[in-house]
Write a structure and sequence with these properties.
The protein is mostly beta strands and 183 residues long. The protein has one helix spanning 70-77, and strands at residues 11-15, 21-28, 32-38, 41-47, 55-61, 65-66, 89-100, 103-112, 115-130, 136-147, 166-180. The protein has one domain (11-180): Lipocalin (Beta Barrel), CATH 2.40.128. It has an eight-stranded antiparallel barrel with strand order 1-4-5-7-8-9-10-11. The chain is elongated. This is Polyisoprenoid-binding protein YceI.
Length: 183
């Protein structure tokens, strides 16, 4: 049995989209990194009496992708990458929550373009706080790395000096705020 971290109460916590981010980083042209984020994320953290009895679900609106470049955003939302018209959402459903010496691992299934693969997020619990409106909030940060090709995103272009335009490895970063729902 793995005890809950201090301040994290059993019950349902809703992800607060206004204070959460689902983002990623990918190598561009072999020399720099491009960052993007999805602004529309929703989900729940169901905290059990202990960590193994806890679960996380999240859904992301693929159309909410933003990298700060309108042309790139349109391309990434298109058929070469997310194909948001055919696959409007990305989903995550946990299969296990584990703790080892204060380090947390969130295992689950990530679905992009109707392809589901297991992933494992290294998670940092940031603690809890009561906001000025009386709501109890918890913070979590997590990272994982995936192969975009595993999810059917194979677009690329060769570079004159060798290499390719878009790297395969994508680092996904989560910065989530969750609001306690049980009274």
């Amino acid at each position: 049995m793995s005890a809950l971290p201090e301040g994290l109460k059993p019950g349902t916590w809703s992800i607060d989209p206004a204070h959460s981010e689902f983002g990623f980083t990918v190598r561009h042209a072999g020399i720099s990194k491009v960052r993007g984020r999805f602004s529309d994320v929703e989900g729940q953290v169901s905290v059990g009496e202990d960590l193994p009895n806890s679960a996380v679900t999240a859904t992301v609106d693929a159309k909410s992708f933003d990298s700060g470049s309108a042309g790139r955003d349109e391309h990434v939302r298109g058929a070469d990458f997310f194909d948001v018209e055919k696959f409007p959402t990305l989903k995550f459903e946990s299969t296990a929550v584990k703790e080892n010496d204060g380090e947390f691992v969130l295992e689950g299934n990530l679905t992009i373009k109707d392809v589901t693969k297991p992933v494992s997020f290294d998670v940092e619990y940031s603690g809890t706080a009561v906001d000025p409106f009386g709501a109890l909030r918890a913070g979590f940060e997590g990272t994982t790395q995936i192969s975009r090709k595993d999810f059917g995103m194979t677009f690329n272009a060769p570079l004159d000096g060798g290499g390719v335009l878009v790297g395969d490895k994508v680092t996904i970063g989560l910065d989530l705020a969750a609001v306690y729902q049980d009274a």
